[in-house]
Amino acid sequence: MKKYLVIGKPINHSLSPDLHNYWIKKYKIDAFYEKKEITEEHIETLINELKEKKINGINVTVPFKKTVIPYLDKLTLEANSTQSVNTIYFRKNEIIGHNTDIEGFEISLNKIKYDITNKEVFILGSGGVVPSIIFALKKMRVSKITISNRTKTKAEDLKNLLVKQIENRVRWRESVINMIKNNVNHFIEIGPGKVLSGLVKRINKEVKISTINNQNDIESLEI
User: Fold this and answer.
1) Higher pLDDT, 159 or 85
2) Nearest residue to 134 via CA among 166, 174, 170, 95
């Protein structure tokens, strides 16, 4: 039986096992998929297990999408361009890091037939998946990308990595306030953090916050 897993910290909120095990069961694949919370010290051991075929594939989520890179033998074009890895596999005696976030984002927009060509895009935050989203957006020929983040240095690091992709950067707090002033009255906060909720409370405005931590939250979410 093949073994696959997703690694991250925190990881309890991940829906990846539910998703992958559904398709594994549906197509009667002799495999299972689980999640594992790790620290950076565990990465080398997991890579060795991949080489020994004790593990057949690894998905990577925050905060390790960049951290895993020094442990790999080779990066695909997508992973190298974004310096972000979400998939690790062993092929021809090499540990390879790939980034499927780019293709996944493109496919999602194409599936709903949303044409983003020449549109301006605003990105709130610069977390693990953002370099991939920016890479995909430029491939899809958007006209302008504006990124806003709480931490100035993190936004600047991202801009330096993808300098041709990002034309503008604004402060995170100012951008949230401006959205509220422009009558944005419903925000969705994904993950265990309460940063956005805390900011909106300090602004003291009537704004709805929906928090998504697990699959049940997604199924019951009302927009």
Assistant:
1) 85
2) 166
For the domain made up of 2-99, the CATH class stated in words is alpha beta
Point out the residues that are catalytic: 65
- The domain limits of the chain are 2-99, 100-172, 185-223
Cα distances (Å, whole numbers) of residue 109 to 104, 143, 159: 9, 16, 24
The architecture that CATH gives domain 100-172 is 3-Layer(aba) Sandwich (3.40)
d(CA 198, CA 110): 35
pLDDT of 214 strictly over 70: no
| Sheet with 87-91, edge to edge strand ranges | 31-37, 2-8, 57-60, 87-91, 94-98, 74-75
Contact between residue 75 and residue 54 where contact means Cβ atoms under 8 Å apart: no
Residue from 161, 15, 24 nearest 79 by CA: 161
